[in-house]
Amino acid sequence: MKLNIYTEKNNHDSLKNIPLAPMITAFLSEPQTAEIKNNKALAWKHYWENCQSLFNISSLADAEFVVFPYDWFWVRGSTWIYPINSPVSKEVRKLSTAYYQKVNKYKRAVLFFSGDRSHEKVPFENAIVFREGLYQSQRQATDFTLPAFPEDLVEHYLSGSMQPRAKSVKPTVGFCGLAKKGNLKNLVKLGIYHSVMLATTGLPDVSPYKGEELRVKLLDQLRNYPAIETNFVIYNHSPFFANIAYEAKLKERSIYVKNLRESDYILCCRGSGNYSYRIYETLCMGRIPIFVNTDCGLPYDFLIDWRKYCVWVEEKELEQLPARLLDFHNSLSPQDFVDLQYQCRELWLKWLSPEGFFSNFHHHFK
Known about the structure:
By secondary structure, this protein is α/β, with parallel strands linked by helices. It has helices at 22-28, 31-37, 41-50, 73-76, 87-104, 153-157, 184-201, 210-223, 246-261, 277-285, 321-330, 334-352, 354-359, and strands at 3-6, 55-57, 65-67, 109-114, 128-131, 143-145, 172-178, 229-235, 265-268, 288-293, 311-314. It folds into 2 domains: 3-146, no CATH class; 153-181 and 208-352, Glycogen Phosphorylase B (Rossmann fold). Mean pLDDT is 85; it is low at 32-39.
């Protein structure tokens, strides 16, 4: 179903050094420019090639929705930085206010994309907000969950051919990433963060370290359970976001993909934001997520039965994780186990990849 959308078609010269929201990048930039400005070009390539069949840029009068062209991240900032006096933040906020006032005359809803620290309120009444990390208990009727969008790991690292694993007696659980216990330095930093958030938003907010600490607890549980094989590559820093040479990042990415490929199940627990990037990489690879629900929303959770594809564990039931995993694994026949891996991959392709997600975008507005 093709939707008419409106977005500004000017250059926003004062903001030319920040990327456009990927949904509309190919409409407002030449493809080669889009790839230069957006460091996730691999993930969005197929969508950018086909987006004209999904959306039509129309006049404001004819549009069904207005799309704000920048991610709200540029107002909110990253996890630890609330950019109160940032020139970019001020400019994006100014532009968003002008957008909102303009479209109000036409009674059109404005779509905002809000990545990473995206559970916080966008200060416009009736704005439709797509968030990676919303809290289900705080969710408004106009809040929807946005997937994180990795590159197609099967296409780029496995020559386009998914490699399912045969079922073994013991399930193998994989994890490659950051997991570390809290320390005094973190406590001091956290105290400052809570104070700033309380002063700027009226709420102290959840600790951005929560995900790291949960991961440590869960990895220890799994490691000490004899009926479960573990395949863990644990860092006390995050190499995937480090400012390192491109070749070094490729090496780290290959280690990560190898961990996915050589595991049956992947532990998917929140990071600094209340969502798991890893769950989308896991499904993309055709592996089965162990999803730790910390009051999360998930994409198309009003249409998709997510529990069919995951070992699902609530935050208040963490001690049950090993037993829950074994019950799940033992309930699958060898063929069921292989079939589920293909179903996970299919779920990602049809609903969670950029082209899959936006092909179904109209379902949010019925």
